Amino acid sequence: xxxxxxxxxxxxxxxxxxxxxxxxxxxxxxxxxxxxxxxxxxxxxxxxxxxxxxxxxxxxxxxxxxxxxxxxxxxxxxxxxxxxxxxxxxxxxxxxxxxxxxxxxxxxxxxxxxxxxxxxxxxxxxxxxxxxxxxxxxxxxxxxxxxxxxxxxxxxxxxxxxxxxxxxxxxxxxxxxxxxxxxxxxxxxxxxxxxxxxxxxxxxxxxxxxxxxxxxxxxxxxxxxxxxxxxxxxxxxxxxxxxxxxxxxxxxxxxxxxxxxxxxxxxxxxxxxxxxxxxxxxxxxxxxxxxxxxxxxxxxxxxxxxxxxxxxxxxxxxxxxxxxxxxxxxxxxxxxxxxxxxxxxxxxxxxxxxxxxxxxxxxxxxxxxxxxxxxxxxxxxxxxxxxxxxxxxxxxxxxxxxxxxxxxxxxxxxxxxxxxxxxxxxxxxxxxxxxxxxxxxxxxxxxxxxxxxxxxxxxxxxxxxxxxxxxxxxxxxxxxxxxxxxxxxxxxxxxxxxxxxxxxxxxxxxxxxxxxxxxxxxxxxxxxxxxxxxxxxxxxxxxxxxxxxxxxxxxxxxxxxxxxxxxxxxxxxxxxxxxxxxxxxxxxxxxxxxxxxxxxxxxxxxxxxxxxxxxxxxxxxxxxxxxxxxxxxxxxxxxxxxxxxxxxxxxxxxxxxxxxxxxxxxxxxxxxxxxxxxxxxxxxxxxxxxxxxxxxxxxxxxxxxxxxxxxxxxxxxxxxxxxxxxxxxxxxxxxxxxxxxxxxxxxxxxxxxxxxxxxxxxxxxxxxxxxxxxxxxxxxxxxxxxxxxxxxxxxxxxxxxxxxxxxxxxxxxxxxxxxxxxxxxxxxxxxxxxxxxxxxxxxxxxxxxxxxxxxxxxxxxxxxxxxxxxxxxxxxxxxxxxxxxxxxxxxxxxxxxxxxxx
Length: 902
Known about the structure:
The protein is α+β, with helices and mostly antiparallel strands. The strands form eleven sheets. Strands 6-7-8-9-17-13-12-11-15 form a nine-stranded antiparallel β-sheet. Strand 21 and strand 22 form a beta hairpin. Helix 23 (787-804) runs antiparallel to helix 24. The longest helix has 22 residues, at 576-597. Mean pLDDT is 92; it is low at 1-23.
């Protein structure tokens, strides 16, 4: 159906499966063989979501209320249409076959098949996962993976979590699972989930459950294999082939055979004895809709069989599309039980003879891979933090399947959708079916355009080929809109994310070149052509008055504004951040063109074009010219948004990241490069001489700095000093843990604006958002520390230092009299961000509450969570708990600065 798309080519056609010998492969060799398409080591991986319920894809409601249409309570009983979820699960690349662990402690009201969390109306700060799980290790080919899940021994407090959080105001902290007391006296199981590949199609599986409590406790383990339902929707059995037929699982000679019409057979072995039970991955229409079921065996059969003691819920013929091996254990205090399994495409008469040897080898290879990669100057603790960050990034891959044309039509298994909301109506071309890096597989089980760009920076350290493919993917014609817009995220693909794709492409090009010893010019050139389309979209769509001052809406910063800039209708907002982002975009596109021009002089034209466009944008930010206003406030020495309303222009004098973003638009050019590109140099000289008014507002290309380098930046030296005086002020942006998103000045000086009959107000909130009626209900850009923009600010300071050197120093902190150059400041900011995850002298990590088991319990204290953002004053981790997506940038910060920091 979509075979014309390169990413839809079936694995057996795309790769030559050679049966690469296990004992001759290292992780580096596996990556190389996979990249060269000699093998398909990534065919199996952690591609299941942590949550598939409550998503846009599964929403067929009239009003687009995805969370209510498919709540957690339906997940055990309703077959998913688009992708599957599970606990620590894996699947093949096309998610035909899925495997995950299910658990029951003898007390829970439902089988633990997936992670629980609150929807946006249940949580006092929006949607919120209420479980404790940790990604501990992973290799880029997923040849070894390990995660840990902490499973309480008492009944899971589902209703208590909902009621307690609903009763709390937005000013109150969230009520967490630890707060319920369910982990008191360590009454829980540590459940380790491990996978090791013997070869590409041979996966060894080990579950180890340890009783941390003081008493013996029961535990049922149900390793589960099932097929994604591809047969109930009236389409061919898969999204790609025209093969028709329902897959089948059945028990034969103490193993489960797995037959799917689109792939080779697989065999699932279990060490020891277990009771195999079978059902169908079909919706329980009787439970959910009071309609008869076509089959007596439905998706929630295992829940009913085990918890409700309904023996007839499972198929006595031992066949179906979902199967589980049930084993019951009573585990003594401190003791462990282990379950071993093997999923393979070839029958094996002795499936467990080499089990321990394979696991040990893969663990050693993982250790060697990271030992070779990690900066040797890192401390042991820094290496541990970095390795868990890499693990989170690699575990957070997910098959993302969404065909909007099919979705809008609805599926034969359900009545035609009566959608009154026309969500994503302009994205009918979008057909996604790829393994993608997710921001957080529970809270954000969908890609986000600008998040992905940041994910790819640390990913490039471990798997540059995957990082490049991820960036290219967003520019493919089945992703990129025909008008050039990069899709934002499934809730609204038309939302505008900051244009960071070009920056990420150039950074990864350089990281990859260093890693491989040869730059991938084909990648850079290919993505550059698509980025030209995207840049044109920005110019055509987001410059309302055609004067090089841009809008863009919320631009990924959610509630950083005094009102939602995406839906504000009373006027037009010229955005300091939107315009700065476009200056940043211009300067990066110029730098890429200069790089490509080294071998192809025709790119000098494009380098000149972006140089000139950058100067026009920079000038428009500073000069009044025909506009009659400036985004630069000379009185304050800071950038602000400008609101056009009723014929007047109002500067929105809010000190936030919006006004710091012009820092990002900076690049240096080496003198040697200028000499090799005479056409570009000549045209630059002509423009500077003939259009001198544009050159006066930015740093001059004619003024050589350190090493005779040239500097191109929005901020001249005096403006840079002014902006830095705010950035490095502890009473403004500088926190002990990085740069705040809103100045602390607004804690005692909230900004208020009256528009018609409405009063808008913004104040400093260092923790969770205190507003729920503005964009990003569970996000807060009104004070907390966010990694992505901190990372970009650090990079920009390093670029300025590359030009100014040691001669440019400022107070750090502002007013202290202690002088630092910009390189030293970038290192200090890096140190503050890294310290979020490090133990202090008292043994606590700022990201965790001081009285939590993460501080004092040996079974918790080395486990790291990578939160979405961090409290602006205390560093406490907030928001999504597994945002190893862009918070995974900590891995890159550590690599470039960790052990060398002051």
